[in-house]
């Protein structure tokens, strides 16, 4: 298997959007295998290119008592097992330069969290691995400013950059998505993804646990596809109510199939050449 170039965008054999999906964090081997098996089956039936996502470590948590992971090497090995068993590319996020070096051998896409999208040394270290780099737009930034993040990766002779819209801070405890960000960032010459579930977060809750509005996932995803997003990012879990991270905004796994079928119909409606 060679996913190095990840030909998921403008692929005439798969003209639909691509999907990045999985549980927020690796809680167990069984969890990620159950989720990957379910998503792989659905996306292959629908012809949607699929990348499995799960964080091997959660560094950005509201509370010091929140779950951060099973241990770096164990979790990364589980991701590699998913990659090899299902024959799909995998993605995880990183937070420091050493993490880029640690994670790169196990995955196909390294993701830069929104809070770190301006961190030059991190972007350069990720770029130097040669992996595809998915950079989330900071909640504090306009879409035009993401040009400089793209430049930092491409200046290291790595052309494989994606950008992800995940909402902009709107007051202290809410986010808003400006769909104009999608074509603006596409104008930088890179694929653009809409992070559906994180766009519906309600951060900075007094409880120390981030809230969310999962009932609006279908609405947000539909708007993203209608706006022309190249891909969607959706965190999902067999039972979000017991998830160890971001349970408040993840979609229940058994609802993914109906959602994806709905989104395929939208894409086909706005792109008649998609059969």
Give descriptors for this structure.
single chain, 275 residues, alpha/beta, eight-stranded parallel beta barrel, two-stranded antiparallel sheet
Summarize the structure.
The protein has 275 residues and is of the alpha/beta class. It is built from eight helices and 13 strands.
What does this structure look like?
The protein has eight helices and 13 strands. The chain has a single domain (18-270), classed as TIM Barrel. Helix 1 links the parallel strand 1 and strand 2 (50-53). It has helices at 29-46, 72-86, 97-103, 120-128, 147-154, 181-186, 217-226, 256-270; strands at residues 18-22, 50-53, 90-93, 109-112, 132-136, 161-165, 168-169, 175-176, 192-195, 201-202, 211-212, 231-237, 251-252. Strands 1-2-3-4-5-6-9-12 form an eight-stranded parallel beta barrel, surrounded by five helices. A two-stranded antiparallel ribbon has the order 7-8. 32% of the residues lie in helices and 17% in strands. The radius of gyration is 17 Å and the shape is globular. Helix 4 packs across helix 5. The chain is α/β, with parallel strands linked by helices and 275 residues long. The longest helix has 18 residues, at 29-46.
What is the element layout, followed by pairings?
Layout: E1 18-22, H1 29-46, E2 50-53, H2 72-86, E3 90-93, H3 97-103, E4 109-112, H4 120-128, E5 132-136, H5 147-154, E6 161-165, E7 168-169, E8 175-176, H6 181-186, E9 192-195, E10 201-202, E11 211-212, H7 217-226, E12 231-237, E13 251-252, H8 256-270
Parallel strand pairs: 1-2, 1-12, 2-3, 3-4, 4-5, 5-6, 6-9, 9-12, 12-13
Antiparallel strand pairs: 7-8, 10-11
């Amino acid at each position: 298997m060679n996913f190095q170039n990840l030909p998921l965008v403008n692929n005439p054999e798969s003209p639909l959007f691509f999907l990045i999906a999985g549980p927020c964090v690796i809680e167990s081997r069984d969890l990620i295998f159950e989720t990957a098996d379910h998503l792989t089956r659905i996306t292959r039936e629908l012809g949607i290119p699929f990348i499995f996502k799960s964080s091997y470590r959660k560094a950005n948590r509201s509370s010091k008592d929140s779950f951060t992971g099973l241990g770096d090497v164990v979790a990364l090995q589980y991701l590699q097992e998913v990659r090899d068993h299902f024959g799909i590319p995998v993605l995880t996020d990183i937070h420091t330069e050493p993490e880029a070096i640690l994670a790169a051998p196990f995955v196909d896409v390294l993701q830069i969290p929104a809070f770190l999208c301006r961190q030059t040394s991190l972007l350069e270290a990720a770029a130097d691995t040669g992996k595809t780099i998915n950079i989330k737009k900071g909640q504090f930034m306009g879409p035009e400013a993401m040009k400089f993040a793209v430049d930092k990766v491409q200046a290291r002779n790595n052309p494989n950059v994606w950008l992800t819209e995940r909402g902009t801070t709107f007051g202290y405890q809410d986010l808003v998505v400006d769909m104009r960000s999608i074509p603006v960032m596409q104008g930088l010459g890179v694929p653009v993804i809409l992070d559906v579930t994180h766009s519906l977060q309600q951060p900075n809750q007094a409880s120390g646990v981030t809230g969310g509005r999962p009932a609006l996932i279908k609405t947000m995803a539909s708007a993203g596809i209608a706006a022309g997003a190249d891909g969607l990012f959706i965190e999902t879990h067999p039972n979000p109510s017991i998830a160890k991270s971001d349970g408040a905004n993840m979609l229940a796994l058994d609802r993914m199939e109906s959602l994806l079928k709905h989104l395929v119909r939208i894409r086909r409606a706005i792109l008649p050449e998609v059969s």
